[in-house]
Amino acid sequence: MVFNKMTFLKLDMHLHTIYSGDSLIKPIDLLKRVKIKGLDGFAITDHNTLKAYKILKKKARGKNIIIIPGMEIETNIGEVIGLFIDNEISVKDNDFFNIVEKIRENNGLVVIPHPFDFLRNNHLKMNLLSDKIIKKHIDGIEIMNSRIIFKKCVNEAKKFNEKYELFETGGSDAHTVVEIGNGFTFIRDVSDKSHESIRECLLSKKSKSMGKLSSPLVHFITVMNKIKKGLYF
Description:
Layout: E1 9-15, H1 27-36, E2 41-47, H2 51-59, E3 66-75, E4 78-83, H3 96-105, E5 109-112, H4 131-137, E6 140-145, H5 151-164, E7 167-171, E8 183-187, H6 195-203, E9 207-211, H7 217-229
Parallel strand pairs: 1-2, 2-3, 5-6, 6-7
Antiparallel strand pairs: 1-8, 3-4, 4-5, 8-9
């Protein structure tokens, strides 16, 4: 399907399913909610696995929904997201440089999620990244992450990107169905719905991070789910 010259896409670029362990979202419920929220698609970014992507890819056939494969990976200095990756990336060696190299080897783009959210121990430690490292190894930055509690963290990410001019993404970081689409990425001038076209638009800085913050209560739901599953003990 070929689009008109000026076409826009609305994608939630950060979502988790039950295969992340700490999320309550079932793949089939994700597809239903995406349609209700008026999204053109999403990036599935489960922790350290592509299992949900493989399932969703089959279930979404004929539904005209864009699904981008991704993983959120915790490195030795905090989390990064790999988008458009072809294969699962091993996390046995979670050294930052090893992980970003593996993302590149799998045709992926490296994105920093929730970069200045000081309430999360797993945010990427930006103070450890030199200008040279950022320019060489990082492609994009998540400005709006709807699970951030304090808006000043979003503003800090905006200020950071004024200097480095990485491409922007926005995502809900949803772990419950109601959060889906609260944060999203607005992409302009897309020629078609292929991964290649979307990837090209991101690298050409044709994306805008948008959306709103979710209620802080969603964190309580996640904590209770982790306790139920014994992930804290």
